[in-house]
Structures are given as C-alpha cells and as structure tokens.
Amino acid sequence: MIANIFLVLGGLFYLLGGLGILRMPDTFNRIQAGTKATTLGAFALLLGVGIANPEWLFKVALIIIFIALSNPIGSSALAKATYKSFPLPKNLVQDDLKELHGGEDNDLN
User: Fold this and answer.
1) Per the domain annotation, does 90 fall within a domain?
2) 93 occurs within a structural domain
3) Which helix (H) or strand (E) holds 40?
4) pLDDT band per the 50, 70, 90 thresholds, residue 102
C-alpha cells in the first residue's frame, strides 16, 4: 500500500512538472518547475519501487543520489545557456549576472 502511494505521488509530481513547463511565462521559470517537480517525482517513484521490491533498494538509493547530484548541475547549465543566448524576461527586477559577463546588455532586440 505504501509503495503504491509513493508511485501515485511520483506520477502526480511528474504531471505537475509537465504542467509547470507548459504554463510558466519564461524559460527560467520553466527550468525551475521542471527540475524541482520532476526530481521529487523521480524520488517518489523510486522509493515506491524500492519499497515494493526491497532487494532493489540499494540500487534505488544509488539512482536517487545520482539524480540529486546531476539535476541541479543540468538545470544550472540550461539556465546559463539560456541567459547567454536569449533576451532576458521583460519583468526581470535585478540582473545579478550582468557584472559577471562584463556588463554587456543581453537583449537581442
């Protein structure tokens, strides 16, 4: 029963992550919605599988550790590439990366 709850919870997080990617206004918000929700979804699904099959629990724990280490790195790389490639959102309040990139204006318009 607990394994099934984790599996359903993981599926719901994936659904919310996909919905967040579709509904968010700009790329930076989409990256955040996709990364956070799908990371939690993967953790819940893997825990459900680990609880349902206790002999796989060690492998599931290794996969969870790998996801926890690789997802922030991947989303950071996507955000940095987006920052350098596309115009910034119009509602951006503060650009903390501007001085790191030589103070250049990142607007392609």
Assistant:
1) no
2) no
3) helix 27-52
4) low
81 torsion bin: left (phi>0), alpha (psi -120 to 50), beta (else): alpha
Q: Is the pLDDT of residue 91 over 60?
A: yes
Is 32 a member of any domain? yes
Residue written as token pair 């990142």 = 106
Count helices and strands (H / E) in the chain: 3, 0
Model confidence, pTM: 0.75
Q: Cβ distance 80 to 63 under 8 Å? A: no
Per-residue model confidence as pLDDT tens digits over 19-34: 988 998 888 888 888 8
DSSP state of 53: -
Number of domains, the chain: 1
Neighbours of 6 (CB within 10 A): 19
Domain that holds residue 52: 2-83
> Identity (one letter) of the amino acid at 27?
T
Q: 55 Cβ partners below 8 Å, 6+ apart?
A: none
